[in-house]
Amino acid sequence: MQAIAPQLRGEFEAELKRRAIPAPKRSHYTKWLLYYMDFCRKYYHAPDDSESCDAFMIKLGEKGQSSERQRQAAAAIALYWELKRKENGKSADNENLAIGPSESWEVAFRRLKDCILTRHYSKNTLATYTKWARQFCQFLGEVSLEDVKAKDAADFFTFLATRKKVAASTQNQAFNALLFFFKHVLDREFEGFEGVVRAKRSNYIPVVLSREEVDHVLERLTYPYDLIVKLLYGCGLRLFEAVNLRTGCFNFDAGVLTIHDGKGKKDRTVPLPGSLEAELRRHMRRVGFLHDKDLAEDFDGAFMPSALGRKYRNAAKEFPWQWFFPARNLTYVAETGEKRRYHQHETHVRKAIKTAVAKAKLTKRATAHTFRHSFASHLLQNGYDIRTIQELLGHSSVKTTMIYTHTVKTKTIKEAKSPLDFEGRGVNSIADDAS
Known about the structure:
By secondary structure, the protein is mainly alpha-helical. Helices cover 55% and strands 6% of the residues. The chain has 18 helices and 5 strands. A 3-stranded antiparallel beta sheet has the order 1-2-3, with no helix packed on it. Strands 4-5 form a two-stranded antiparallel ribbon.
């Protein structure tokens, strides 16, 4: 667990005592702060960022922590921030104190976040790019940001490939992250950076389950995870698209599901499986009962995308904006003191799928994305053209969809074959006709 600087920890505990916090609770406050610091280290969050605190609160909600404990954790983090601001204020009064390497990097990390949010990239992209920027910082040690050279980046990629032995896709991900970091955050041209050898990714053929194997996994999943997986397979959804569904995405009359803000911030529609309609309607009623309960307890609504919550202040409490797969507990928002509802977290779904796959004794390594692969492959196997499948999957390029031609053996795709094996007359008879 990540430690706090001894001096700051002493000030923290002394301030708790000064505020007459009972001794048993003081240890709880310290524990929450330690957990928060460890969370920031593990998930590459900045400890002094309010969004890091919100992410931590969501995590506590997923762990089943009560609103009271979440408020206690938020109070501990708020006190830590207060002490940090006082400490930074004292440092600013010292005219001879220059900004150290760690401070300059933290400023750069905040600029990285601003650059990504300005371009409306996803939270996953923000987390990934921040992770690689921080790992690069750790690799360099005490090197100041102003002294970083192209060779340092090349050494980092060599370290990843030779010492860490990361996969080609991981190495290329790190390359793209640092390229963005230097181009948009540091505003530097990297002469010689293009000379860095990038790993070549091997041709990957996705794992595809048979319909029988899909059913074996579904039989071993409990509610609501079985319904989530049925949508992954029945509609070809990505996992983050499934957990981000809201009640307003479902149009049962037209038999259509609308996916908003999919990969690349693109919207698309897919047909709703008719065999799932009754089950989906039952689940919708359960969501409605939970919504009524939340309203009775005066909750502050679901988490809203971007600035919509400020633009439409009452929308967060309206039923069409409620998550279709809501989290079990409300989340306490430390910055505003609100209680809001989040959606089921991806990690819970992944764990449920992993357990079900193990119980099914499959010989294939199946993950949440395997059901999307199976959706595309089974459509192709049943005669759907590749352009239709591309639109249903939301792929920008048909080249991405073409990978599924390697996962099926079907009459709609001509197999590679020698002309000598074609049915009909041989080569000599064709030559005779030509003469």
